[in-house]
């Protein structure tokens, strides 16, 4: 039933659009815990599409953006890819897929797009296994999720050196395990002490027991888990020890943590992509966008970057042909908001970086 509903919705979206030469699909959640980030991604891609269309289009034709909501559900991720692959007529064929935002079915989705010769750009950070997958037509611009371990450890050394750290991860989610153990490796390399790992899945939702164990010795807590357990754990820690420094991943905690925690969100640290607005390589373009009343926010920069990367490839190949673009991606450097970038086996030589933010007086600010 889910497949049928999604397919009918998507077909309605396709048919409601004006027939154009090139279709771009952004697969991202438009409702649910991650809707804020999904909508940012979609809005950023739309800005790039609008700018290209205002300048006469691509190879003389207009672009059309289609937002497909997969709700970050595994079944929808796969059925969305299958549905997009079925649209083969000139009017409905998708020439570029951006996403999906949620990547738990990364290998299956990758196979579907490659088999059906659809170019795909992934804007979200991946784990090591996902990043190592080589697939024709696939480009990865989001980097590695484990890179946040370095940002956390560097900040810990500057601000919390000597304090004990509790790292809560969920072994049922591979990328959280990878980041937890990458943090452990960095602690060992830097001869730091006081890090203890807690596997959330071993506690069977006994959050009080987990929090009690954490607070026996830890003054710093890093929670890398799904949105709901993250919110529960953070609130319980805040209720029992307001002096504990708490770190979470912005994309896993999502907007859920703000809705659930209220005032308890004050002081929490968020690891997320670095704000690109201060990047020298993007300053001139950002001024141009602002003059026109357009500015990609948050993950919108990655949606914007994905559309423009593909447009550069199309111009250089003088075609939207799958094979020509796949070959073209390895030939040149390409301009991205964070600097000139090359691709090898679909992996970018330079990606957006993680940074650290903190809620202060209710505002999302750069951590000092």
Number of H- or I-type helical stretches: 14
Return the CATH topology of the largest domain. Rossmann fold
Mean pLDDT: 89
List the helices and strands in order: HEHEHEHEHEHEHEHEHEHHEHHHEEEEEE
How would the global form be characterised?
elongated
Gap from first CA to last CA = 49 Å
Unreliable segments (pLDDT under 50, ≥5 consecutive)? 1-19
Instruction: Name the beta content range.
Output: 15-25%
Structural class: alpha/beta
Helix content: 40-55%
Count the E strands: 16
Rg estimate, integer Å: 21 Å
Placed side by side, the strands forming the largest sheet appear as 7-6-8-9-10-15-16
In brief, what are we looking at here?
With 368 residues, the protein is α/β, with parallel strands linked by helices.
Could you describe the 3D structure shown?
By secondary structure, the chain is an alpha/beta fold. It has 2 domains: 220 residues, Response regulator (Rossmann fold), CATH 3.40.50.2300; 139 residues, Rossmann fold (3-Layer(aba) Sandwich). Strands 7-6-8-9-10-15-16 form a 7-stranded mixed beta sheet, sandwiched between helices. It has a 5-stranded parallel beta sheet with strand order 2-1-3-4-5, with helices on both faces. Helix 4 links the parallel strand 3 and strand 4. The protein is elongated, with a radius of gyration of 21 Å. It starts with a helix and ends with a strand. The N terminus is likely disordered.
Write the layout of secondary structure elements.
Layout: H1 2-15, E1 22-27, H2 35-54, E2 63-68, H3 74-86, E3 94-98, H4 106-115, E4 119-122, H5 128-132, E5 138-140, H6 147-159, E6 165-169, H7 174-189, E7 195-199, H8 207-215, E8 220-224, H9 227-240, E9 245-249, H10 250-253, H11 256-261, E10 269-273, H12 280-291, H13 300-317, H14 322-328, E11 334-336, E12 339-341, E13 343-344, E14 347-348, E15 354-360, E16 363-366
Parallel strand pairs: 1-2, 1-3, 3-4, 4-5, 6-7, 6-8, 8-9, 9-10
Antiparallel strand pairs: 10-15, 11-12, 13-14, 15-16
């Amino acid at each position: 039933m889910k497949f049928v509903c999604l397919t009918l919705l998507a077909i309605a979206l396709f048919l409601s659009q004006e027939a154009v030469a090139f279709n771009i699909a952004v697969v991202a959640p438009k409702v649910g815990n991650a809707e804020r980030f999904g909508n940012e991604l979609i809005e950023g891609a739309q800005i790039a599409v609008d700018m290209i269309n205002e300048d006469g289009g691509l190879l003389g034709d207009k672009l059309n953006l289609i937002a497909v909501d997969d709700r970050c559900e595994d079944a929808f991720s796969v059925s969305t890819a299958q549905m997009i692959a079925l649209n083969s007529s000139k009017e409905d064929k998708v020439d570029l897929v951006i996403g999906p935002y949620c990547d738990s079915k990364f290998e299956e989705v990758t196979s579907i797009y490659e088999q059906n010769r659809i170019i795909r750009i992934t804007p979200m950070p991946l784990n090591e296994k996902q990043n190592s997958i080589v697939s024709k037509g696939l480009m990865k611009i989001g980097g590695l999720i484990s890179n946040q371990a370095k940002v956390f450890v560097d900040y810990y050394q500057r601000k919390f050196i000597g304090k004990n750290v509790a790292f809560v991860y969920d072994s049922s989610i591979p990328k959280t395990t990878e980041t937890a153990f990458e943090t452990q490796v960095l602690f060992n390399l830097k001869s730091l002490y006081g890090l203890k790992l807690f596997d959330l899945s071993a506690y069977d939702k006994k959050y009080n027991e987990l929090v009690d164990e954490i607070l026996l010795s830890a003054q710093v807590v890093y929670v890398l888990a799904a949105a709901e357990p993250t919110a529960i754990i953070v609130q319980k820690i805040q209720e029992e020890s307001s002096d504990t420094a708490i770190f979470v991943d912005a994309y896993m905690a999502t907007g859920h943590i703000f809705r659930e925690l209220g005032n308890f969100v004050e002081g929490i640290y968020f690891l997320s992509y670095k704000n690109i607005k201060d990047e020298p390589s993007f300053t001139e373009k950002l001024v141009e966008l602002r003059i026109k009343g357009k500015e990609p926010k948050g993950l919108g920069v990655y949606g914007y970057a994905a559309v423009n990367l593909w447009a550069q490839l199309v111009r250089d190949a003088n075609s939207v042909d799958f094979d020509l673009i796949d070959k073209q991606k390895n030939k040149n450097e390409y301009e991205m908001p964070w600097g000139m970038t090359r691709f090898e086996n679909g992996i970018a030589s330079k990606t957006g970086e993680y940074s650290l933010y903190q809620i202060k007086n209710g505002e999302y600010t750069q951590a000092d």
